[in-house]
Design goal:
With 174 residues, the protein is α+β, with helices and mostly antiparallel strands. It is 24% helix and 38% strand.
Length: 174
């Protein structure tokens, strides 16, 4: 659950300030001399409180974060631990990618989020850098029901994601 307070507050600011017709990819690095600097690149859907992004600490694996507007308690999130969850990602018209995920609750204890540390995260990040049209995201429960589907803007994502790759020590091609 590291970093949820920062992610929630930052996404909240983006949602408040974003123009109704578009979303903007943002990059932020927060200094942490004890655990390593945290780098985050994300996009939020204006007015709908969805957010999608990547985060990492130097010399650590990248993670995907998907924040939803669904209100949930920590007890409900704990019940989801036993459920097979997958983040589904479609970039442009490429085949769907499935990322093993876990449910989490933001630090303020109200909003449902999903985090993936799947080995394919870096591949998705690299593929997204060349996206032209869209990023579609959803959550699959027990390989059957798909919830929280959202199409997000990819405009200007390449520059933001390039900064994240560099900050996290991830080679641009792999």
């Amino acid at each position: 659950m590291r970093g949820w307070k920062w992610v929630g507050a930052t996404l909240g600011m983006v949602l408040f300030m974003a123009a109704p017709a578009s979303a903007e990819w943002l990059y932020q690095q927060s200094e942490d001399p004890f655990n390593g600097d945290l780098s985050t690149a994300y996009v939020a859907s204006p007015g709908e409180e969805y957010g999608f992004g990547f985060r990492c600490r130097m010399d650590d694996e990248a993670e995907v974060i998907y924040l939803t507007p669904e209100l949930i308690s920590q007890a409900d999130v704990s019940a989801l631990v036993k459920v097979d969850l997958r983040l589904l990602v479609i970039i442009d018209d490429e085949p769907r990618v499935q990322l093993r995920a876990r449910a989490d609750v933001t630090d303020n204890g109200t909003r449902l989020g999903f985090v993936s540390e799947d080995v394919a995260v870096e591949s998705v990040l690299r593929r997204l850098m060349t996206a032209k049209r869209r990023l579609a995201v959803g959550v699959e429960i027990e390989k059957s029901e798909v919830i929280h589907t959202k199409v997000l803007d990819v405009e200007r994502s390449s520059e933001t994601l390039s900064r994240l790759l560099q900050a996290c020590g991830i080679p641009p091609s792999g």
